[in-house]
């Protein structure tokens, strides 16, 4: 499925992406890449082996649920994207009160630079963790979007594996970070804490 506009999952709405399934949000071939996927209270997204590719921002608000057991989620995958602001607080954002977690699969994120206290990866819910075989990979986007990027995790959030593959750029960790698996920094990329 290829969807070229912003999409929202509301109460009692469920989006499941099983093995072999792929959903693309945005055209990912031209334009500025501003199509988002947002999950509101009572809405659910489950990635169970499939792939979800989002041009810009993936946000789960209080009462919304996101789980991934295997598969892949790509956010800020194409284009410039939109600037961070209150309603668009991150490229991958989990707000306080959001539900779920990631026990497998890979989150791939390009990310914009931090601005006004907003960061590319922001998790504000302490019970939302990346566990098991899950990993987070910071990489460049498809449209020469080579940005520095920031991470902010509220105390209590745990990450299994973190890979920084952004040659020529820096990923800034702007909070405490509990990484239980591997931290991999690829050649010519850097991390600052």
Explain what this protein looks like in three dimensions.
With 193 residues, the protein is an all-beta fold. Helices cover 0% and strands 44% of the residues. The chain contains no helices and 20 strands. The protein has strands spanning 2-3, 7-9, 14-18, 22-25, 37-39, 44-54, 58-60, 65-75, 92-94, 99-102, 106-109, 121-123, 135-139, 149-153, 158-159, 161-165, 170-173, 178-179, 183-185, 190-192. The strands form three sheets. Strands 1, 3, 4, 6, 8, 10, 11, 13, 16 and 19 form a ten-stranded parallel β-sheet that branches. An eight-stranded parallel β-sheet has the order 2-5-7-9-12-14-17-20, with no helix packed on it. The N and C termini lie far apart (39 Å).
């Amino acid at each position: 499925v290829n969807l070229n506009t912003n999409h929202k999952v509301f109460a009692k709405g469920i989006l499941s992406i099983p093995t072999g399934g792929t959903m693309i949000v945005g055209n990912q071939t031209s334009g500025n890449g501003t199509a988002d996927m947002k999950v509101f209270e009572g809405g659910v997204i489950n990635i169970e082996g499939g792939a979800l590719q989002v041009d810009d921002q993936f946000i789960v608000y209080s009462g919304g649920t996101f789980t991934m057991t295997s598969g892949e989620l790509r956010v800020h995958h194409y284009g410039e994207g939109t600037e961070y602001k209150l309603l668009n607080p991150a490229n991958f954002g989990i707000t306080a009160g959001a539900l779920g977690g990631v026990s497998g699969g890979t989150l791939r994120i390009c990310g914009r630079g931090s601005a006004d206290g907003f960061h590319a990866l922001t998790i504000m819910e302490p019970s939302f963790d990346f566990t098991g075989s899950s990993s987070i990979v910071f990489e460049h986007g498809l449209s020469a979007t080579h940005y520095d990027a920031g991470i902010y995790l509220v105390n209590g959030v745990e990450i299994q594996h973190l890979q920084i593959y952004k040659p020529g750029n820096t990923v800034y960790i702007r909070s405490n970070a509990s990484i239980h698996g591997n931290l991999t920094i690829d050649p010519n990329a850097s991390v600052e804490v």
